[in-house]
Amino acid sequence: MRKDLLGIRDLSQEEIFCFLEAAKKQKEKVKNRHLRGNSLTGASIATLFYENSTRTKMSFLLAAEYLGAYADDLNISTSSVAKGETLIDTGLTLEAMGVNAIIIRHSMVGSAHLLAQNVKCSVINGGDGSNEHPTQALLDIFTMWEHMHEFKGLNVTIVGDVANSRVARSNIFALNKLGAKVIVAGPATLLSGNMCAFGVTVTTNVADAVKNADVVMGLRVQLERHKACQFPSLHEYAHFFGINTELLKHTRKDAIIMHPAPVNRGVEISSGVMDCEASVIYRQVENGVAMRMGILETLINK
Ligand code: CP
């Protein structure tokens, strides 16, 4: 097993299934404290997040503790990063304190790779710019696997701000490797020109794109990454590209609705859809803890 988890692009199909099986083994422990083990007793992990997070950071901290490890977060705003300490020096400092794994989120593409090349402990990419978010994709495909049991022939439609989404990229890499078919849909300004090179179908017609979908995955509109106005208004975006009850009339009856969250309710997905029976958005959050437990155990106990 490799030292680091930096992206889905580098993983084999066998490695992806290894992580799915690892998460399956951990799933029951998320909500049943009596089942939580001590397989990582004495190990320690640190989260190093230069960008905001609720799910990824908290679920890694809890995952480590559920397995008996020490876990702590380096609060970037009160750390010596504010005094100019570099990413590599910060990583080396955490390593010198004995951490076995660092989970990093940074706006710079390749930041996790840079850190991994400079420390001996495991590095896990918690999101690097618009490049990859591998642990999110692993928990997403784990959630699909729980519902559909099979990836070959699975139809997945990803809707929204694809151009800026590391979640979309990591999911596309994973789903391609597993034999699923992916359609990406959204406003032309948010579908980057080279999307076809990723082996997906690209369209601006969301109603058509969801017709045969087993999975409809919304994406957050990442306003913080937009350099210019990409669509006239949020209201208009919601009207043409939002996932709402009207759009669900075009989907298969058994389709599931996913979103990595956080969600802009009423923009990329309506409240009605977010809270409907087909929505597995909070199941994704629950699976995120199980997947991160599986990832930590796999990497640290390699
Ligand atoms: N999906 C996701 O990465 O959520 P956070 O930004 O809250 O970690």
Element order, helices and strands? HEHEHEHEHEHEEHEHHEHH
CATH fold node name of the largest domain: Rossmann fold
Query: Helicity range of the residues?
Result: 25-40%
How many β strands by DSSP? 9
Overall mean pLDDT: 95
Q: Rg from C-alpha positions?
A: 19 Å
* CATH class membership of the largest domain: Alpha Beta
Distinct small molecules: phosphoric acid mono(formamide)ester
CATH 2nd-level architecture of the largest domain: 3-Layer(aba) Sandwich
Query: Which class best fits the helix and strand makeup?
Result: alpha/beta
Count of the domains:
2
Strand order of the largest sheet: 7-6-5-8-9
In terms of DSSP E residues, the strand content is: 5-15%
- Ends distance: 6 Å
Shape: globular
In CATH terms, the superfamily of the largest domain is Aspartate/ornithine carbamoyltransferase
In short:
By secondary structure, this protein is an alpha/beta fold. 39% of the residues lie in helices and 15% in strands. α5 (134-148) crosses α6.
Question: How does this model look, in words?
Answer:
The protein has 302 residues and is α/β, with parallel strands linked by helices. The chain has two domains: 137 residues, 3-Layer(aba) Sandwich (Rossmann fold), CATH 3.40.50; 147 residues, Aspartate/ornithine carbamoyltransferase (Rossmann fold). Helices cover 39% and strands 15% of the residues. The strands form two sheets. It has a five-stranded parallel β-sheet, with helices on one face. β3, α4 and β4 form a beta-alpha-beta unit. The longest helix has 20 residues. The chain is globular and about 55 Å long. The mean pLDDT is 95. Bound molecules: phosphoric acid mono(formamide)ester.
